[in-house]
Amino acid sequence: MASLIQNLFKSRQKRTYSVRETIVDDRKNKGNDYTNNVLKNSMSPYVYRNARMNDFVILIQKVISDLIDSVTFLKGYKSYTTKKDYKNFR
What we know:
The chain has helices spanning 16-22, 51-78. By secondary structure, the protein is mostly helical. It is globular.
């Protein structure tokens, strides 16, 4: 039996072209990858004791990280000197 959330975030897979384009980049100072821990670091550990609440927080964590990334996207959209697919803004 398939899980309810299986393939729910299928659109989040990395595109082959974008991986190939940036595979030779040598980035020394990468930022924190907050997509998996943005809520976990900002909420009380008491919330995670309940299994249902823990599953819910894991489910909405990607949505919250998308909201944060949308600000970065707008920052890049405003800059006309960078490529449209560039995602490494500070």
